[in-house]
Structure formats: structure tokens, C-alpha cells
Specification:
Radius of gyration: 19 Å
Bound molecules: N-(5'-phosphopyridoxyl)-D-alanine
Largest sheet: 9 strands, mixed
Distance between the termini: 35 Å
Structural class: alpha+beta
Number of helices: 6
CATH architecture of the largest domain: Alpha-Beta Barrel
CATH superfamily of the largest domain: D-amino Acid Aminotransferase, subunit A, domain 2
Strand content: 25-35%
Length: 287
């Protein structure tokens, strides 16, 4: 079953606060026409930011990588205003933000004088209770481009992979390049193999997940053995635990992995996942 998602009550678009149905952009906006833009999703626990600086730094990195001249940190005030206006100041929520290169006649090169289009809104998210859930996931080829470190709004390969998973009764889809796991359609992947935590190294093939970094830091604090190395499909026989991380996914235990209609992994343990979930809750909620 596909979850129904409501629209936010209000969005920020280029300096104005509007009802979603009143917020309009040009058909020549390069985000609409070419997918020429960057986005970010940042979590707020009971209205309090978690790693907002890191999210804005990643947004700035991505904007710089595509030479989109915009100061990501200029959004900070608008972010808090969005949360306040949505009456989420004491609720678990997230803020979606998107910057496109703006409106200009369609060209493959960057126009010289377009002004960035900025869209931002806060929305409630259920962040509690993720430890009680677990996911069944599928695997498909990673069909994305070669700069997955850039959080581009062009998500065609990601949504195609996720749609395939959801419509077949899975919760998420894991992506493989030449048999090597990169990440999920909207999450980072961790494996526990012979007691050691593995995750794909940073670089052009994955998004540098903020939650991924939090989990790596927590794992090192717990003196777990950690290797930022990729894992191959064929190695799943040696894997005891798998979990996924992400801003709203947090740390999600994986029960099973199915590839080409065959179950290729069933969780054997969950000790390390549980330990990390426990410290993650403390970290995010400051308890
Ligand atoms: N997705 N990998 C991909 C491809 C992602 O889209 C995401 C996040 C992550 C996890 O990154 P982080 O821990 O920084 O959220 C990894 C966001 C939330 C989204 O598209 O909605």
C-alpha cells in the first residue's frame, strides 16, 4: 500500500509565504524544464535542529559543484520561520528546501543572468518508534549518473528504483553497480559482516549522508570495528545485519533482501543495529 502524503499548508517561494495552490513558477524555470537544481531535507526533533549546519554545508557544496551562485546559509532564518508558521516548533518535523537555477530560455549551458528559484517548507514527520520497525528491501541496478554526491532534484533513477520496490511490496530498493552495493534509492546502507560495520566509502557514487556520518561517529565511539568499504552481492552470505540510514529513515533494520525474486539475505542478528539505534535516539533527542 502506498502511503498518502498531504501537502504542507504553506510554502516559501522566492520571499513569499503562499498556500501551495497559489505558489507558481514559470514553465521556463530550469528546475522544471531541466532538473537544474539542488535540494536538501533537514530533520527537527521536537522542533530542535539536528545537524542543520551539516545539511546546509552539503547544500552549499552541491550548489558550488554546479556553479549555482547562492548562499545556502541565507536560508537559516527562513527555515526557522517555516517551522514556526507551520506550528511545528515543538513537534518532530523536517524542512524541504530546493534551489534551482531560475528562469531563462532553455539552453544546455548555464544562463548568465537567471536568479535562483527558492522553495522551502516545513512538514510534520513521525520520527519516533523507528526502532520497532524493520524493512524488506529489493535490489536493482544503480542506473544513476556519475555524480551521486550531488543532491540533484533530478531523481528519475532513484524514483524508478523506489517505485519498483514499493509496487512489489518492498519498503526500499538497494542499488548495485557491477554487483557492489552503493546505497538505497533514498538511504545509505550499512552491513555488519563478521562483527565489522561496512558502508560504501564517500565519493562520486554515493550521497555523503549526514545520518551515515552520525552513525559512523557513534560506531567509533562505541569502539565498533568500522570499514568504509563497499560490499558485494556475493558477500551477503557472510553478512549478519543490514540497516539503512537517512534523515527521516534514521536507522532502519533490514529483515531481508530480495534480488531477482530470490531472497539473498535474511537477518541473522540485530545486536549492533540495536546498539546504534539506542545511542542514535539519545543523540537526536538529547536524552
Ligand atoms: N534522502 N542516499 C540517498 C540517495 C538519499 O536520497 C538520502 C536522503 C540518503 C541519506 O542521506 P541523509 O542521511 O543526509 O538524509 C542517502 C532524502 C532524505 C530525500 O531524498 O528525501
Amino acid at each position: 500500500m502506498k502511503a498518502e502524503k498531504p501537502y504542507p499548508k504553506e510554502v516559501y517561494l522566492n520571499g513569499s509565504w503562499l498556500k501551495p495552490e497559489k505558489a507558481q513558477i514559470s514553465v521556463f524555470d530550469r528546475g522544471f524544464m531541466l532538473g537544474d537544481g539542488i535540494y536538501e531535507v533537514s530533520p527537527f526533533y521536537k522542533g530542535k535542529d539536528f545537524k542543520l549546519k551539516e545539511h546546509l554545508q552539503r547544500l552549499q557544496y552541491c550548489l558550488d559543484e554546479i556553479s549555482l551562485d547562492f548562499d545556502a546559509f541565507s536560508l537559516e532564518e527562513v527555515i526557522y520561520e517555516a517551522i514556526e508558521r507551520a506550528k511545528l516548533s515543538t513537534e518532530d518535523c523536517a524542512v524541504y528546501m530546493q534551489v534551482t537555477r531560475g528562469v531563462a530560455p532553455r539552453t544546455h549551458y548555464y544562463p548568465e543572468d537567471a536568479r535562483p528559484t527558492v522553495l522551502l517548507y516545513a512538514y510534520p514527520v513521525k520520527l519516533e518508534g523507528f526502532e520497532e520497525k524493520s524493512w524488506k528491501v529489493s535490489v536493482t541496478k544503480d542506473l544513476r549518473w556519475h555524480r551521486c554526491d550531488i543532491k540533484s532534484i533530478s531523481l528519475l533513477a532513484n524514483i524508478r528504483a523506489n517505485e519498483e520496490a514499493i509496487s512489489n511490496g518492498f519498503n526500499e530498493n538497494l542499488l548495485i553497480r557491477n554487483g557492489w552495493f552503493t546505497e538505497g534509492s533514498h538511504s545509505s546502507i550499512f552491513f555488519v559482516k563478521q562483527g565489522t560495520l561496512f558502508t560504501h566509502p564517500e565519493g562520486h557514487n554515493i550521497l555523503s549522508g549526514i545520518t551515515r556520518q552520525v552513525v559512523l561517529d557513534l560506531a567509533r565511539d562505541l569502539d565498533l570495528k568500522v570499514k568504509e568499504e563497499r560490499v558485494h552481492l556475493d558477500e551477503l552470505v557472510e553478512v549478519e545485519e543490514v540497516f539503512l540510514t537517512g534523515t527521516t529513515t534514521q536507522i532502519m533494520k533490514v529483515d531481508s533482501i530480495t534480488y531477482k525474486d530470490k531472497k539473498v539475505f535474511t537477518a541473522k542478528k540485530d545486536e549492533i543495529t540495536r546498539k546504534l539505534q539506542e545511542v542514535f535516539v539519545k543523540e537526536t533527542r538529547g536524552e
